[in-house]
Design goal:
The chain is α/β, with parallel strands linked by helices and 389 residues long. The chain contains 15 helices and nine strands. Strands 6-5-7-8-9 form a five-stranded parallel sheet, with helices on both faces. Strands 1-2 form a two-stranded antiparallel ribbon. A two-stranded antiparallel sheet has the order 3-4. Helix 13 links the parallel strand 8 and strand 9. Helix 1 crosses helix 8, helix 5 crosses helix 15 and helix 12 runs parallel beside helix 13.
């Protein structure tokens, strides 16, 4: 009996030791893969925040892209240099902006979120606002400067404040606003009485870099949880920075879709369509109307742009409610343009849905898409005589 117990104990010990060694080898292999061999997309998916800091050499938020702001939560990190990406000293993506504005300069500011920032285009010179400037100057408007005032994951709440506190001081002659998708996240709150005009049902009172969960220390475990849909990548705003309220469900939706677990949890009883229907876009309309009114009062020409997307891509548009909600926001932009006599370029109607122009989600344009968007906007501004030499 004692001999059998002794043999069994040795076998258990050997099995445990082998498992520990195997896990150790897999962990080391995973770390080497992420740090040395992963491409940019894979690195964004699996890297920890510490690995982002090590690669970029900065301690600001969200792999160096963002930094805290008292009233906006966060803005683009000033003076960022990351490969082909650049932020100026004010935190806007692109070259330095002369303040005060030089005599004779015609200044355009592009307001919005990640699709204005052109998040899927690593080279800041290939962002849609930068290409818009290049296009207009090639047509003889050498006095034009275009500011990229878009910041990832901002909604109309932040864009309105951004105009009032930051862009207004840069003396723009014309502002272009394009955003409709991020505000869908503001409406994905439950129960309906959590849907409020200050967006407190979606966002917690403060933005702060969140403590990473225990598994973030293990690259192997982090990869497995991300792939299974039980965690978002550390690079995701909803995982590291975006302190959403307990009643907010957009990032829970994203986590489920990422891991193929949708619908589960609350979405088994309350669908995305139910949430959007219960929380109508009254604040989206209010924020844009306030933005248009403020610009007009400043003597700035507002231009609205509907939000283009490609329904050919899954993820969002094969879920009931998302496409309807986005179309609803675009229709509000059309109504505001008519009511306030504001020029509007209907990109949602004119932009192709072919995969050639889109990143993997059908929301963000790739380099070909930003080039086309810049051309369409430039054509519109010139044809309507909205830009002057």
């Amino acid at each position: 009996m004692r001999v059998w117990q002794s043999r069994f104990g040795r076998k258990v010990f050997l099995a445990l030791a082998t498992s520990i060694v195997t896990l150790g080898v897999l962990e080391v292999s995973a770390r080497i893969y992420v740090s040395k061999f992963a491409n940019r997309e894979q690195f964004s998916k699996y890297a920890s925040l510490d690995e982002y800091r090590a690669r970029i050499g900065t301690n600001v938020w969200w792999f160096g892209l963002l930094t805290p702001h008292r009233y906006l939560g966060y803005i683009g990190a000033p003076n960022l240099v990351d490969g082909q990406n650049r932020h100026n000293s004010l935190g806007f993506r692109g070259e330095e902006i002369t303040v005060p504005k030089p005599d004779g300069e015609f200044r355009i500011a592009c307001l919005g979120a990640s699709t204005t920032y052109s998040l899927f285009v690593p080279d800041y010179r290939r962002s849609y606002p930068a290409l818009l400037q290049t296009d207009l100057r090639s047509r003889g408007y050498s006095n034009v400067t275009v500011i990229n005032a878009g910041v990832p994951a901002w909604s109309t709440y932040e864009s309105l404040i951004n105009y009032l506190l930051r862009v207004q001081n840069l003396e723009p002659d014309l502002v272009i606003f394009k955003e409709a998708f991020a505000d869908l996240g503001c409406r994905l709150v439950w129960p309906p009485d959590a849907y409020k005009g200050d967006n407190s049902g979606c966002l917690a009172p403060q933005f702060a870099l969140r403590d990473m969960p225990f598994y973030n220390a293990s690259t192997l475990l982090r990869i497995l949880l991300v792939e299974s849909g039980y965690a978002l990548p550390a690079s995701t705003l909803g995982e590291s920075v975006y302190n959403h309220a307990d009643t907010a469900y957009f990032f829970e939706f994203a986590k489920q879709r990422w891991g193929g677990r949708f619908p589960s949890g609350i979405f088994k009883t309350v669908s995305v369509a139910d949430m959007l229907e219960a929380n109508p876009p009254v604040y989206y309309r209010r924020n844009i109307e306030n933005l248009v009114t403020s610009a007009k009062e400043d003597g700035v020409q507002p231009v609205l742009a509907t939000f283009p997307y490609s329904p050919k891509f899954g993820g969002y548009f094969d879920v009931e409610g998302f496409r309807t909600g986005l179309d609803e926001h675009n229709e509000i932009l059309r109504q505001i343009a008519e009511r306030f006599h504001v020029p509007m370029i209907d990109l949602a109607a004119s932009f192709p849905i072919d995969a050639t122009y889109w990143g993997f989600d059908g929301i963000h344009a790739n380099a070909e898409g930003t080039a086309l968007e810049a051309k369409l906007v430039a054509d519109f501004l010139v044809e309507r005589h909205l830009v002057r030499k």
